[in-house]
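From the methods appendix. Each design record in this collection lists the discretized structure first, followed by the designed amino acid sequence. Records were kept in a plain field format so they could be parsed without special tools. The example shown here is representative of the layout used throughout.

RECORD:
C-ALPHA CELLS (506 positions):
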C-alpha cells in the first residue's frame, strides 16, 4: 500500500496530496490493497477543472483508510475479474461517464440515465425511449426451468424494483435484481447547489428517508472538515443519540415485519406499535419523526433540553422490558426458528468477496462496524456492540438486529446520563469550504456503512459530491441469499436485508 495515501475518517486533505498514479500502478496498488482484506469505500470518476477524467479509490483495511487517484481513458481493464467488490462501482462509472470497463463480467446499467459527458452509451440504451431496465436479462436454459418476473410495479406502497427468478419447480437457481426506476440525480443536485451551502443538508437528509440522520451526519462531518467548523461535546452526544434512535426504530420495524412474514402476529403487532413510539421520540428530539432538520454542519439546528432528554430516558426505561420480552417470544418460538434457521444463507466467504456491510455483513461473520473501527461523534464514550450468531442466515440477520436494539437502548441511556451544555450548540450561518480539498466521511447508519466524499475546486466550490449508501453493497447479497432457496422464502430473505431502493437509486 506504499502508493496509497493514508487518511483519517473526516479528515480534509489537499487534492495535491492525493497520489496521481499511472493507471497500471493505480490498478495494481488498489487491487493489492483489496486482496489483503481491504474493502472498497468509494470508487468513482469525476472531471477536473481541465475536463480530464479522473478516477478516485478509497479503500479501508483494518483500522486504516487509503486514497489514490489516476487519469481515466474511455476504456480500461476492469477491476472486477480480479475483485468482485468493484463490480457495482464500475457499472456506475460506466453509466455516469460513458467509460467501458473491458472484461467486466456483468456490465449493465445501474440507474438508467444518459451519461454526464454525452458519450455513446456503453449499454446500447436508447434514452429517447422511457423504458428503464429494457435489456436482456440473465437466462437459465433447460426444459424444467421457468421464469418468474416480479415488479417494478408492486402491490401496496413498495418502491419500484424488478426481481427476476430463474427456477426449477420451487427452487431458485438465480435471482437478478434491477433497480434504477426512480433515479433522482441526488449527486448532481448536491454539486449544483454552488455557494448555496444551506441547501445541501436538506438534500442530503432526503437521500433515503429512513436514513435521514445517517446521511445528514456524513454530510455535516464533511462540511465541518472542509470549513474548519468545531462541534461541541453536547451536540456530538445529541447526534449520536439521534443516529441510535434511527437504528432502533428501523430494526424494531423490521423484526415486526419478519414476524408478519412467518404469520406470528403478536410480535408483529407489538413491534409495530413500538416503532411508532421511537419515531415519536425522534419527533421529541428533532420536531420531525425521521429526524430531518436536526443535524447541521457545526452542530444541531436547535438544542435538546433537559425536558426532552427526560422524556426520552423515561420512555426507554418504560419500553425496554417489553422489547426484551417480545424478542424472547419471537426467538424462542419453534415455528419461527424453523423458518429463520438455514434460510437465505450468505457464507462469510461470499460476504467478503462481495463486500457486504452493516448487519448483513456482521450476520455473515464480517466483524466490521464503523462505530468501532472509525468512531465519530460520541461513540468512543460507549461500549462496543457484540454479535453472537453469525452464520449468515435469516436467523443471524434477525439476531444481529436484536443485539443492536439492546445495545442502542443501553448506549442512549448511558449518553443521556452525561452532563452536557445543551444551551450552547450553535450552527454557523455562513461558512466557506477549503479550496482544492478532499474529504471522505464514514458512519455506521442502521443498514451499515454510509459514506460521503467531497472534492472542491480552486474557489472552494464543490467539484464532485459522491454518495454511497450501504444498499449499494448489499443488494447483490440479497440475490445470493436466494440461491437454491424456495421462491416462497423470498419475502423472508428480502425483509431480513430490507434494503433501500432510493438509497441505491440516488
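DESIGN:
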Amino acid at each position: 500500500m506504499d502508493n496509497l495515501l493514508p487518511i483519517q475518517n473526516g479528515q480534509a486533505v489537499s487534492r495535491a496530496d492525493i497520489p496521481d498514479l499511472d493507471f497500471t500502478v493505480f490498478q495494481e496498488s488498489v487491487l493489492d490493497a483489496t486482496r489483503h482484506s481491504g474493502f472498497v469505500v468509494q470508487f468513482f470518476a469525476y472531471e477536473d477543472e481541465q475536463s480530464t477524467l479522473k478516477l478516485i479509490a478509497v479503500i479501508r483495511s483494518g483500522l486504516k483508510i487509503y486514497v489514490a487517484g489516476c487519469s481515466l481513458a474511455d476504456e480500461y481493464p476492469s477491476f472486477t475479474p480480479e475483485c468482485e467488490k468493484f463490480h457495482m462501482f464500475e457499472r456506475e462509472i460506466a453509466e455516469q461517464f460513458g467509460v467501458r470497463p473491458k472484461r467486466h463480467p456483468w456490465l449493465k446499467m445501474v440507474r438508467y440515465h444518459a451519461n454526464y459527458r454525452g458519450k455513446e452509451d456503453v449499454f446500447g440504451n436508447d434514452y429517447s425511449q422511457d423504458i428503464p431496465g429494457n435489456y436482456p436479462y440473465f437466462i437459465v436454459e433447460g426444459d424444467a426451468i421457468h421464469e418468474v418476473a416480479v415488479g417494478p410495479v408492486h402491490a401496496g406502497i413498495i418502491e419500484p424494483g424488478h426481481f427476476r427468478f430463474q427456477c426449477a419447480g420451487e427452487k431458485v437457481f438465480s435471482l437478478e435484481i434491477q433497480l434504477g426506476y426512480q433515479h433522482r440525480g441526488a449527486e448532481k443536485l448536491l454539486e449544483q447547489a454552488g455557494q448555496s451551502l444551506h441547501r445541501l443538508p436538506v438534500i442530503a437528509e432526503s437521500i433515503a428517508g429512513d436514513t435521514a440522520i445517517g446521511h445528514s451526519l456524513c454530510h455535516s462531518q464533511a462540511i465541518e472538515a472542509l470549513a474548519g467548523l468545531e462541534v461541541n461535546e453536547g451536540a456530538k452526544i445529541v447526534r449520536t443519540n439521534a443516529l441510535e434512535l434511527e437504528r432502533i426504530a428501523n430494526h424494531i420495524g423490521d423484526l415486526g415485519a419478519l414476524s408478519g412474514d412467518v404469520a406470528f402476529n403478536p410480535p408483529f403487532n407489538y413491534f409495530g406499535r413500538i416503532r411508532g413510539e421511537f419515531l415519536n421520540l425522534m419527533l421529541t428530539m428533532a420536531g420531525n419523526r425521521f429526524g430531518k432538520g436536526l443535524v447541521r454542519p457545526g452542530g444541531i439546528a436547535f438544542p435538546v433540553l433537559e425536558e426532552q432528554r427526560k422524556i426520552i430516558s423515561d420512555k426507554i426505561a418504560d419500553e425496554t422490558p417489553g422489547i426484551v420480552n417480545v424478542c424472547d417470544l419471537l426467538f424462542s418460538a419453534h415455528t419461527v426458528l424453523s423458518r429463520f434457521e438455514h434460510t437465505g444463507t450468505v457464507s462469510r466467504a461470499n460476504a467478503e468477496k462481495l463486500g457486504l456491510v452493516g448487519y448483513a455483513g456482521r450476520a455473515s461473520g464480517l466483524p466490521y462496524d464503523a462505530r468501532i473501527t472509525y468512531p465519530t461523534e460520541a461513540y468512543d464514550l460507549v461500549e462496543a456492540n457484540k454479535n453472537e450468531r453469525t452464520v449468515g442466515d435469516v436467523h443471524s440477520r434477525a439476531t444481529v438486529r436484536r443485539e443492536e436494539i439492546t445495545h442502542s437502548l443501553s448506549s442512549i441511556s448511558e449518553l443521556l446520563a452525561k452532563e452536557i451544555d445543551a444551551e450552547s450548540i450553535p450552527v454557523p450561518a455562513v461558512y466557506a469550504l477549503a479550496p482544492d480539498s478532499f474529504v471522505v466521511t464514514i458512519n455506521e447508519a442502521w443498514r451499515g456503512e454510509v459514506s460521503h466524499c467531497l472534492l472542491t475546486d480552486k474557489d472552494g466550490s464543490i467539484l464532485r459530491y459522491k454518495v454511497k449508501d450501504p444498499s449499494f453493497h448489499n443488494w447483490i447479497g440479497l440475490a445470493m441469499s436466494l440461491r437454491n432457496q424456495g421462491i416462497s422464502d423470498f419475502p423472508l430473505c428480502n425483509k431480513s436485508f430490507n434494503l433501500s431502493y432510493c438509497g441505491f437509486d440516488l
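APPENDIX NOTE: Residues 233-261 form the longest helix (29 residues).
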